[in-house]
Design a protein that fits this description.
The protein has about 140 residues and is mainly α. Helix content is about 80%, strand content about 5%. Helix 2 (about 15-35) runs antiparallel to helix 5 and helix 3 packs antiparallel against helix 4.
Length: about 140
């Protein structure tokens, strides 16, 4: 499926890739300023990243099925990319659920939360690097898709 000439899944990956770091920045600002608007912005960024992330996973799974047929030699690399990013989406889903249940209060150790979110963002950067390599170097998305 294409929107504005681009495959939908290529467009979707930008949302969690941008919203999770935005969540992290807002979380840091909240911890240092205690300004409630930043924790609200953090929560909304995280929720948007989680929702768009699960949609991207659905499209990625569909792509994996096509790749398994056409480019078998790339399946391992695609699975590594998917496992890394899928794990981050799952972790953020759990954090988002926890914060949703306690919203707007941040009830657990703020330092632990910041460490978890920082590691998750680092892992999504690594996963996205692998995904970018699949697209740019391995030409996993053809022009006719």
């Amino acid at each position: 499926m294409k929107i504005l000439g681009h495959p939908v899944h290529i467009m979707l990956i930008h949302f969690p890739s941008a919203l999770f770091p935005m969540d992290l920045v807002c979380s840091f600002i909240y911890v240092f300023t205690k300004e409630p608007s930043f924790i609200t912005a953090s929560f909304y960024a995280m929720t948007g990243g989680v929702v768009s992330g699960w949609i991207a996973i659905a499209f990625g799974t569909y792509d994996l099925l096509n790749i398994a047929e056409k480019k078998k030699y790339l399946v391992k690399k695609v699975l590594v990319h998917g496992c890394i990013n899928g794990s981050v989406i799952l972790l953020y889903s759990l954090l988002d659920y926890y914060e949703y249940k306690h919203y707007p209060l941040l009830n657990f150790n703020e330092n632990l939360l910041l460490i978890i979110k920082t590691l998750a963002v680092c892992f999504i950067i690594i996963g996205n690097f692998i995904g970018g390599s699949l697209i740019l170097k391995n030409k996993i998305v053809s022009e006719d898709e």
